[in-house]
Amino acid sequence: MPIVKVHGAELSYDTAGDPAHPAVLFVHAGVATRAMWDPQFLDLAADHHVVRYDTRGYGESPGTDEEFADRHDAVSVLDAIGIQRATLVGASRGGRIAIDVALDAPDRVAGLVTIGTTPGGQIDSASSTERELEMVAQMQAASEAGDFEELVRIEVAYWDLGPTRDIDDVDPQFLARAIELNVGAAHWDFAGLDQPLLPAAVSRLHEVTVPTLVVVGDHDPTDERIGYELMLAGIPQAEGYRFPDAAHLPSVEHPERFTKVLREFLAKNEL
Prior knowledge:
The protein is of the alpha/beta class and 271 residues long. Helices cover 39% and strands 19% of the residues.
């Protein structure tokens, strides 16, 4: 398993495809590992140079109690593989990392795709539903109690199912995969301190100058749906795609449809 050694961490990654082809870097969500990209990674390897990695403190990328910046780690992965520019595809916090890279190192980013993402610095909405607030409080209580089995249960219910759906509304295979990815993330004991991009991305979206695809599920929590609208309004070359039958991870819940949408975006923009 290849790794990139950075200060305070070892970042595990996979790469496939011809290095002469356009590069795509996948950045996973906070409720998953790089394994969430299995369908897209295998598909795009046919005509792209694809890379995915576990971010610091997640999955197979252990990290120590150090100050760091996720955006710098992403660039370090590109450097280690010898990739000058890539399209960044990020889910949730992975999308936030991708946006920060596009702002902090614009010469390294050819295109951008976000899924269920809120840009850095977005303030929590006062429009959150009572159910959302209740579930967030439950996650906090489980985390403080060190009850990680309960934390996984609530995180999967909040993010993967979404606050407006329950277990009976989703495919059992998707539910099993969501739990597997969340357990594999195993990030709860990571104490590293990510240093945020300043000024924050939410006030600088107009500086993102590359073609951008913004994706959201209609069952995602309120803040993520607001983030979708903010990015569509703020990023000059942004286009949107909504999944009416998904929550936070449409690329996992509906992999074939998401891959088709992703491929169409890449082809249209010659990425």
